[in-house]
Amino acid sequence: MKKALTMDPRDNVATALAALEAGDDVEVLSHTRELVRHVTSNQALPLGHKIAIAAIASGNDVVKYGAKIGRASRNIEVGDYVHIHNVASDRMPLTENMLGHTR
């Protein structure tokens, strides 16, 4: 089974420890390697990218390492790939032109 890692109990995303394909069962582990939950990946995502471990409504905070890293720009379901296509960054606002597409 593939694995993902969270660093803080407040996190609503985890970091994939292997590349994931849609439909992969993923064990989500805490930083102490305790099982937090299981999720199923809804999309493929690369190693080191974020997967949602809780539903995040549009406009709500995306939390990694116990800190807000952005806001959901659309509803995010458990198991979704979390990246610039569905998160508005607080650190570096991206324009549609920079993204190369429209949302």
Defining key terms:
single chain, 103 residues, mainly beta, Archaeosine Trna-guanine Transglycosylase, Chain: A, domain 4, six-stranded mixed β-sheet, 1 helix, globular
CATH topology: Archaeosine Trna-guanine Transglycosylase, Chain: A, domain 4
* CATH top-level class: Mainly Beta
| Count of discrete alpha- or pi-helical segments spanning 4 or more residues | 1
* Poorly predicted tracts of residues: none
The radius of gyration computed from the alpha-carbon positions, rounded to a whole number of angstroms, is 13 Å
Structural class: mainly beta
Please give a quick description of this structure:
By secondary structure, this protein is mostly beta strands. The protein contains 1 helix and 9 strands, in the order E-E-E-E-E-E-E-E-E-H.
How would you explain this protein's 3D organization?
- The protein has one helix at residues 96-99; strands at 2-5, 13-16, 25-29, 35-40, 50-52, 61-64, 67-72, 81-82, 87-89.
- With 103 residues, it is mainly beta.
- The chain has one domain (2-99): Archaeosine Trna-guanine Transglycosylase, Chain: A, domain 4, CATH 2.30.130.110.
- Strand 3 and strand 4 (35-40) form a beta hairpin.
- The N and C termini lie far apart (33 Å).
- The relative contact order is 0.20.
Layout of SSEs?
Elements: E1 2-5, E2 13-16, E3 25-29, E4 35-40, E5 50-52, E6 61-64, E7 67-72, E8 81-82, E9 87-89, H1 96-99
